[in-house]
Specification:
The protein is of the alpha/beta class and 475 residues long. The protein is 29% helix and 22% strand. The strands form five sheets. The protein has a seven-stranded mixed β-sheet with strand order 8-7-16-17-18-15-19, with helices on both faces. A hairpin with a 4-residue loop joins strand 12 (252-258) and strand 13 (263-265). The model is unreliable at 1-7 (pLDDT under 50).
């Protein structure tokens, strides 16, 4: 288990930046600001970093268990950059085959041909993807070509439309949606395929599959998530430290008061908590002057369920599998033998109040159908439901997402970070990291950087470049 950083001082003498919240957004903001020479203090109420992408100690086994399985793709350029900053990039294991299983455990793979540029790299796999009939594969290819032709600019125009409308317009059948779109999108967006914003649904396919041959590659942590944060993003990291109040004077944030009574002064504060907590931190008179807080109550929270399942015999040899039929939508092998599995249900609204033993019974039945030859018996289960896992990327939701930097007349030295802020990404680990980098960018534009960083420079890492066949197909 992580312990408090004993170094509460900071040898730097630059402007002091407080980062409140040690999830991925806060870690990214702290790491970026620290690299600029600011005197950075990261405050986290829990005893470990990572927020929703972290681990907890199982009291029965003393094992570190992840809150939920987190996956990154090759197109997550900023998340990969953060892992490099934290010296843990080598802890991510990449897989060039994405495995799918039907309800009887029959396997179907999507894979890219090494060396072929996008979108040609996935062509052979898509043509041979026998989970769909030939006419159904033609439906998908036609839709993918439409996504390519519209380009990134075209998807931006579709923000007010549901992806369900787009799928209907492009004659994608219910079976194609169940066997192709659902396994990809529900987990990527934490929302039902038909409800999600068309913009973000198409972004998933463009960035991950259609524009660059490396975009689809699946990265799985080869360790507990908590171990990815063993290298601290700044010198002064305080775990188990709760902030009771943000102090304000003359329309500016001046510091924080901790639950211990200690006060910490600051030249800038980056709030990297979830949007529910943000609304509690800011007094109503100040919220009224800062438009970033005007529409946070319109964002809708969506839960995610993670199921840790221990069996008496090996069950699954694959590292991962997307499942065509539920209730579990994805399965991950968590040990070398395949006795320990982790199942995930995204957009898990109907599961939030379901009894845990009933859940386990349904999951065991599903796994027995998937792997009928294993004859494995479920020994125990641990089910974790994050009720406010992400915001829902509904059509038009970008209008409610706040910027990281304050608007004119707002709280001029208070910055926001979190996957709910304006990142042009849905609520993902990549979106969280981008928000942290953007918040650090905003700080450097407001407060002179001690190391002389150019104000128009950004911490954001560019997207993967669009390869030439895809460029030719864009309008």
């Amino acid at each position: 288990m992580s312990v408090n950083n004993p170094h509460h001082g900071n040898q730097k003498s630059g402007p002091r930046v407080l980062v409140v919240g040690g999830g991925l957004a806060g870690i990214a903001a702290a790491a970026a600001a620290d690299s600029c020479g600011y005197c950075v203090t990261l405050l986290e109420a829990r005893r470990e970093l990572g927020g929703r992408a972290s681990s907890f100690e199982d009291p029965e086994t003393d094992q570190l268990l992840d809150n939920c399985q987190h996956v990154l793709l090759g197109c997550c350029t900023n998340l990969r950059d953060l892992y490099t900053r934290l010296n843990v990039a080598d802890r991510i294991e990449y897989h060039r085959r994405v495995h799918f299983l039907d309800s009887r455990g029959r396997r179907f793979d999507l894979w890219g041909v090494s060396g072929l540029p996008a979108p040609l790299h996935l062509g052979p796999a898509m043509l041979g993807f026998s989970a769909l009939t030939l006419p159904e594969r033609k439906q998908v290819i036609t839709a993918m070509l439409a996504m390519l032709r519209m380009g990134k600019a075209g998807r931006e125009k579709l923000d007010g439309q549901t992806f369900g409308q787009w799928l209907t317009e492009h004659r994608q059948s219910d079976r194609v949606i169940q066997r192709f779109y659902d396994p990809v999108l529900i987990s990527a967006l934490n929302e039902e395929t038909r409800r999600a914003s068309c913009k973000y649904a198409i972004q998933v396919f463009q960035d991950a599959m259609l524009l660059n041959q490396h975009g689809y590659v699946v990265g799985l942590p080869g360790c507990a998530l908590e171990e990815l944060y063993s290298h601290r993003p700044c010198a002064d990291v305080r775990l188990g430290t709760r902030v009771s109040e943000i102090m304000f004077a003359a329309g500016q944030a001046t510091g924080v008061t901790l639950q211990t009574g200690e006060t910490l002064n600051a030249d800038a504060i980056i709030l990297a908590t979830n949007y529910h907590a943000v609304q509690r931190w800011i007094p109503e008179p100040l919220r009224a002057t800062d438009g970033r807080f005007a529409h946070l109550d319109k964002l809708e929270s969506v839960p995610i369920l993670g199921a840790h399942l221990w069996f008496d015999k090996p069950v699954m040899r694959l590292s991962h599998a997307a499942l065509f039929d539920g209730p579990l939508q994805w399965l991950f092998r968590k040990d070398a033998e395949g006795k320990i599995l982790h199942g995930v249900i995204s957009a898990a609204r109907e599961w939030a109040e379901k009894p845990r033993d009933k859940c386990a019974e349904l999951f065991q039945k599903q796994i027995q159908q998937l792997f009928p030859d294993s004859s494995a018996r479920l020994l125990r289960q641990k089910i974790v439901i994050e009720k406010r896992a992400t915001f829902s990327p509904l059509p038009g939701s970008d209008a409610w997402r706040p910027a990281q930097a304050p608007p004119p007349g707002g709280i001029e030295n208070l910055f926001l970070a979190g996957d709910y802020t304006k990142t042009n990404w849905p609520a993902t680990m990549e979106g969280a990291v981008r928000s942290g980098y953007l918040a650090a960018d905003a700080v450097t534009r407001k407060i002179a950087c001690p190391v002389g960083r150019e104000q128009d420079k950004t911490f954001l890492v560019p997207d993967l470049p669009t390869q030439w066949p895809a460029r030719l197909l864009e309008k």
